[in-house]
UniProtKB/TrEMBL annotation:
This is DUF3820 family protein. It comes from Epilithonimonas hispanica.
Length: 70
């Protein structure tokens, strides 16, 4: 796991949709599950970031992000 990815998901904001401007790490798991049910995450870097936060939340690993949160 690249630590830069973890840092980014604590800083980058969702660029579109219902949760536009929400920090990726703060997106509700239900929204991430919606992506999974509806064709998966977008392509590219944003999709990778969303998939990463989804796995973190799904596996109860949010404590990993505490040192990176502002």
């Amino acid at each position: 796991m690249n630590p830069q990815i973890l840092k980014e998901i604590c800083e980058v904001r969702m660029p579109f949709g219902k949760y536009k401007e929400t920090i990726l790490a703060d997106l509700p798991i239900s929204y991430l599950e919606w992506f999974m049910r509806n064709g998966g995450f977008p392509q590219g870097k944003l999709g990778m970031q969303l998939a990463t936060i989804y796995e973190i939340k799904l596996n109860g690993l949010m404590d990993l992000l505490k040192p990176l949160r502002r």
